[in-house]
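Hey,

Quick one before I head out. I ran the complex with iron/sulfur cluster overnight. Inputs first:
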Amino acid sequence: MMEFEERTIKIAIDTSKCPECESKACVEACKLYSRGILQLKDGIPSVSHLSPDEIKRQGTECLACEFQCWQNGQYAIRIEVPVKGLVDYTAKWRGR
Ligand code: SF4
């Protein structure tokens, strides 16, 4: 499992699924819709060429890698997008 953080989101990639993925759609999506921070390293998507600060500075949080992996890859990417106050907000409305 590879995990990294952009400014407000957390990306987890189950890289055990990547060697058998023919599309490598996440990397292409990152190049097409963002700044290409995901690069292939030994056939697996990687951000190891960047420091944590560089990832946060260059990442655009576009979510394209996750979408493309679900559509054309092996369903290996999960992105957490925390929304501050959402739990309290939904609890408030459920209590009505
Ligand atoms: S598209 Fe998904 S399964 Fe394919 S290389 Fe990227 S993360 Fe791995």
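The CA atoms of residues 70 and 76 lie 7 Å apart.

Talk tomorrow,
K.
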